[in-house]
Design a protein that fits this description.
globular; 13 strands; single chain; Adenine-n6-DNA-methyltransferase TaqI, Chain A, domain 2; alpha+beta; about 40% helix; 8 helices; 4-stranded antiparallel sheet; 3-stranded mixed sheet
């Protein structure tokens, strides 16, 4: 029960306000232990935890399914476009590691928009949603970790289906990549993330998997002092991007298209499940809903 109480955004905001009161923001164990909470009778706590844990189980099951689907699509991409065992490869000549007929360009040339997000104005009651670096892990976007914000956002910084999001600040998360494959209105990213949007003539899924496989490379491209490492827009823009012939990419998009749709559906389900779970907790706690 304590776990769910501390997961609430209201509690998170309260703890942040406590830590911000010190000259050196932190929250020691003594201060944490002084936080007062109101709990219902023990049997009711168990029933509430049972209900909420059912949501968590569904979310975790969906996450595992998403990872398996993403892994299958990524393995196909590697087979065709990294190991170069694509359909008909036996009849294509390779020159300097690139098959004939494949175009070389940069990520910047393959993108219609490449830039950082905003410095958000956090507000748990606002309609705007902002994705942060914690949301990007294992090549996926976890929308349950996104926060609400009220700042106006330029249209080109609203995240679109197919955008590739790259963590671009700090050690540890620098270089993590995920492709945004869900439909969420009024959603952006914070200034620590770079939005890389495919140009109209660049297939979205191929674009995404091409950059997803660059995670390790991107993590090493950061520049700056420890904990202040930055992955600049120019650095990302100048990275080599190879585009196979249209017919081959279309075959790839056709095969992984259904996988992408399933990932989109499961991601949307998890977002809705997390919202429903978070709305249920206060109503169950105050007796508005019987258990």
């Amino acid at each position: 029960m304590i776990y769910y109480l501390f997961k609430r955004k209201e509690m998170f905001s309260y703890i942040q306000s406590l830590s911000a009161q010190a000259a050196q923001p932190n929250l020691n164990i003594t201060r944490l232990g002084q936080i007062r909470i109101s709990l219902p009778p023990y049997d009711q706590q168990r029933q509430i935890s049972f209900i909420l844990s059912a949501y968590d189980d569904l979310i975790e099951n969906n996450r595992r399914r998403i990872q398996l689907l993403e892994e299958a699509a990524r393995l196909l991409y590697k087979e065709w476009f990294v190991r170069l065992r694509f359909p008909g490869h036996e009849h294509v000549k390779i020159k300097d590691g690139v098959p004939e007929g494949w175009k070389e360009m940069t990520i910047g040339e393959a993108s219609s928009f490449l830039g950082r997000g905003i410095t958000p104005k956090y507000d748990d009651k606002a309609q705007g949603i902002v994705i942060n670096q914690k949301c990007i892990r294992n090549r996926l976007v976890n929308m349950s970790l996104a926060r609400h914000q009220s700042k106006d956002v330029p249209p080109n910084k609203m995240v679109q289906h197919g955008d590739v999001l790259i963590n671009s600040t700090g050690e540890g998360t620098l270089g993590r990549v995920a492709q945004f494959l869900c439909q969420v209105e009024n959603c952006t990213v914070d200034s620590h993330i770079t939005i890389t949007r495919p140009a109209e003539d660049i297939p979205k899924l191929y674009f995404g998997y091409r950059i997803l496989l660059m995670e390790d490379y991107l993590a090493k491209m950061g520049r700056g002092a420890t904990n202040q490492t930055e992955l600049s827009k120019t650095t990302i823009s100048d990275i080599l991007f190879i585009l196979p012939p249209k017919s081959l990419v279309e075959d790839f998009e056709l095969i992984v298209g259904n996988t992408s749709k399933q990932i989109q559906i499961l991601t949307s389900q998890n977002y809705k499940l997390a919202k429903a779970r978070d709305l249920l907790l206060p109503r169950l706690m105050n007796g508005e809903l019987a258990v």
